[in-house]
Amino acid sequence: MPAKPTPLSTAATIDREARGHAALLIIDMINDMAFEGGARMLDSAHAAADRILALRVEADRLGVPVVYVNDNYGQWHSERSRIVEHCMRTDAPGRELVARLAPRTEDYFVIKPMHSGFYATNLPVLLPRLAASRVILTGQATDICVLFTAADAHMREYEIWTPGDCVAAVAPERSQWALDIMVQAMSAEIRPTSELAVADWLKRDERATGQSA
């Protein structure tokens, strides 16, 4: 008898009853913010974190899996706990942000080496295992890593929702520019969580596809 496949993250099991047909991706929010322009992004990153935390609660309630997709900060031998520890060091500007939004044991954690969450990661394997055909993209920066991840998701025919209040960039106009591209080139939904709930987005897609979530 072939051996069972090993888990794709530190989450113990995949709950095949509770899993949804969507996944919530939290991109680069475990971040030391120690980069050029990081100080200017802190306020918008904290504002996005407020909404992401509320979105995570709703995802939990609906059985939608939460996947952190995060930069490796050049630490090629790193894993979840070491990245969190690196970003929470005493001199890290993003220390408080990471403390608020740290991944939980049950969350998935994908480490990426480049901008897109799909490039050279196990995300293209994990999402089908979670039966996800739709992704909710949140995080930073809207015009870099979120945008690149959205482009790769679109090429793989995922339905995309990037809530406009759950992303952050160095300047609001850069965030809006990226969101506009997602709408125009990727048919993405960008309404903020104040206007659209996860449950309503899932129901809308059920009506469009004739599938049951």
The percentage of residues in β strands lies in 5-15%
Number of domains: 1
For the sheet with most strands, the description reads: 6 strands, parallel
Overall shape: globular
What Rg is obtained from the alpha carbons, in whole angstroms?
A: 16 Å
Instruction: Provide the low-confidence segments as ranges.
Output: 1-19, 207-213
Label the CATH architecture: 3-Layer(aba) Sandwich
DSSP helical segment count:
7
The helical percent reads: 40-55%
Characterization of this structure:
By secondary structure, the protein is an alpha/beta fold. The chain has seven helices and six strands; from the N terminus they run βαβααβαβαββαα. Strands 1, 2, 3, 4, 5 and 6 form a six-stranded parallel sheet that branches. The longest helix is centred in the N-terminal third of the chain and has 25 residues, at 38-62.
Question: What is this entry, summarized?
Answer:
The protein has helices at 38-62, 80-87, 95-101, 123-129, 142-155, 172-186, 198-209, and strands spanning 22-27, 66-71, 108-112, 134-140, 159-161, 167-168. With 213 residues, it is an alpha/beta fold.
Secondary-structure blueprint of this entry?
Layout: E1 22-27, H1 38-62, E2 66-71, H2 80-87, H3 95-101, E3 108-112, H4 123-129, E4 134-140, H5 142-155, E5 159-161, E6 167-168, H6 172-186, H7 198-209
